[in-house]
Structure to design on (400 residues):
């Protein structure tokens, strides 16, 4: 037997597994590195967040990714070069963090790498009949494995697409396995660049679990900040938005994108929601003169409204749920005020109350996918709604 396959077999049979989850989102702020301790699998999964850190990207790294990020036309040579380079940068970050934590690589069983999404193209978005759903993440798993010496699971989204999904959101799998609780309807709301949520019914019936993207989270607000305030990457504490006023006509026009009328579940990305999208809406409403502050206030309201509207459409008949927030958007106080004011019957908490740092949640969820890939079984979602295929995901890369 190949020694690496034998090692993988041994890992699968260990009582406790230590898995590093990696997440690099569309905000390009940094690499989330979460060291997790796992026991069990499926609905018996127990996870403990041992250590966590976000390693910030330097401006040059961001610039390289932005050269190909969410662009219909990009240099194929640049994409080819970035694929291994991103992995090697991530590997260095992992090794530095492990050294800082005083943890030897030999004690880490697996790395679960999301990679860096550079383009997301669901069929309902590209509308080219002969092609299906597609998405592309760079940051090659083989390079990560060789540079760290740790078996790496990566490229999770391709299996999801192959099985009939759109490649996102994948949070539903980890949410269901580690956050479901009998007797409590829960919503796991994640506000990253794109906002998404998972509904977990208190009856624990997998076929009632639901997950979808709902529209822009921070992506438009971040892009506007970076355009007008060099050196700033997001509207910290909503300080810009609070200085402005929401423009009703512009808000209405921003909500006219066909994406908002698509059936659930659905996925999207910065390919749709970007500054060009904002500019077109401003042109149609003759609001190009609007101040940055008023634009920011309007975008803040857009994110809140589309989150609330999607929740009401999909789980309106459930009992008042408990909403557990995560992602960068949960740190935007004005955004959370807007959401809470429209969902008065719900309780709002963060995933801290579930034992997981909300900033680490996405990285933990990918570590959970790796745990399932190696030692779990097929997670059955019964006859649930489309978009949640019952599959395990991830490609395996050995370090030699």
């Amino acid at each position: 037997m190949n020694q690496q396959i034998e090692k993988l077999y041994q890992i699968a049979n260990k009582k406790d597994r230590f898995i590093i989850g990696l997440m690099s989102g569309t905000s390009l702020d940094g690499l989330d590195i979460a060291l997790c301790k796992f026991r069990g699998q499926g609905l018996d999964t127990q996870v403990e967040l041992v250590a966590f850190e976000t390693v910030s990207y330097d401006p040059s790294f961001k610039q390289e990714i932005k050269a190909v990020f969410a662009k219909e036309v990009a240099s194929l040579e640049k994409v080819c070069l970035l694929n291994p380079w991103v992995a090697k940068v991530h590997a260095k970050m992992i090794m530095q963090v492990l050294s800082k934590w005083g943890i030897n690589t030999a004690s880490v069983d697996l790395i679960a790498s999301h990679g860096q999404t550079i383009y997301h193209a669901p069929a309902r978005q590209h509308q080219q009949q002969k092609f299906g759903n597609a998405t592309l993440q760079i940051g090659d798993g083989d390079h990560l494995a060789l540079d760290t010496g740790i078996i790496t699971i990566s490229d999770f989204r391709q299996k999801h697409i192959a099985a009939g999904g759109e490649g996102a959101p994948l949070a539903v799998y980890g949410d269901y396995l580690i956050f479901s609780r009998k007797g409590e309807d829960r919503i796991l709301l994640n506000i990253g660049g794109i906002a998404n949520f998972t509904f977990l019914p208190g009856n624990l019936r997998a076929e009632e679990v639901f997950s979808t993207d709902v529209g822009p989270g921070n992506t438009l607000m971040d892009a506007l900040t970076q355009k007008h305030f060099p050196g700033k990457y997001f509207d910290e504490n909503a300080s810009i938005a609070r200085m402005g006023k929401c423009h009703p006509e512009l808000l209405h026009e921003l909500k006219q994108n066909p994406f908002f009328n698509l059936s659930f579940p659905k996925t999207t990305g910065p390919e749709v929601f970007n500054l060009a999208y904002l500019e077109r809406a401003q042109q149609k409403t003759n609001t190009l003169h609007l101040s940055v502050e008023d634009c920011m206030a309007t975008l803040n309201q857009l994110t809140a409204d589309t989150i609330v509207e999607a929740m009401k459409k999909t789980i309106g008949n459930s009992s008042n749920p408990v909403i557990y927030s995560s992602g960068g958007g949960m740190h935007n106080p004005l955004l959370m005020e807007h959401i809470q004011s429209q969902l008065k019957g719900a309780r709002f908490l963060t995933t801290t109350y579930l034992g997981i740092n909300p900033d680490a949640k996405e990285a933990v969820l990918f570590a959970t996918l790796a745990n399932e890939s190696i030692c779990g079984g097929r997670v059955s979602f019964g006859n649930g709604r489309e978009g949640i295929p019952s599959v395990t995901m991830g490609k395996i890369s050995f370090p030699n």
The domain at 3-168+389-397 is CATH 3.30.420.40 (Nucleotidyltransferase; domain 5).
